[in-house]
Design brief:
The chain has 163 residues and is an alpha/beta fold. The chain is 12% helix and 12% strand.
């Protein structure tokens, strides 16, 4: 049995466009479906979509806000060096988005991570993050650790978005 949503025109079928104002016998003659007289019956008639009968339109009542929101902005999850405590990250431990998420220092392992230099490191760590500050890199390498940058994922995760 055929269902309503399965109905399709025959292959190759082309519906002719409606030609209005071509005589009374055509069905759409004389007023051409516009009714009789009035602003909307005239050529170029009608009002713009924002017109509210002369009242100050809603669009004009709103404040004029400059600028825009950059949809390509990358929102990094910040982690400071002081958060990498020795209990969670002992010497030669690997610091990755996954281990940081397990430790509860970031919300998601999928979103990019930036390591910032607030705090000190007294043991070598293998750091694999998307971005690292100059001071954080210097402190990690001075403690005998290594830094590897991970490419930022193509999928954009906005701030506060559930993953």
């Amino acid at each position: 049995m055929m269902k309503l949503h399965e109905l399709r025109p025959a292959p190759g079928a082309v519906k002719k466009r409606k030609r209005v104002g071509r005589g009374i016998a055509a069905g759409q003659g004389k007023t051409a479906g516009r009714g009789t007289k009035g602003q909307n019956a005239r050529t170029g008639g009608g009002v713009p979509p924002y017109f509210e009968g002369g009242q100050l339109p809603f669009v004009r009542r709103l404040p004029f806000i400059r600028g825009f929101t950059n949809i390509f902005k990358i929102h990094y999850q910040p982690v400071n060096l002081k958060a990498l405590d020795p209990e969670r990250f002992p010497a030669d431990a690997e610091v990755t988005p996954e281990t940081l998420a397990e430790a509860g220092l970031i919300r998601s392992a999928k979103a990019p991570v930036v390591l910032l230099g607030d705090g000190d490191v007294d043991r070598p760590l293998r750091v694999r993050v998307h971005r690292i500050s100059r001071s954080a890199r210097a402190k990690v390498e001075a403690a005998g650790g290594s830094v590897e940058l991970i490419p930022v994922p193509k999928v954009r995760i906005k701030r506060g978005q559930k993953h």
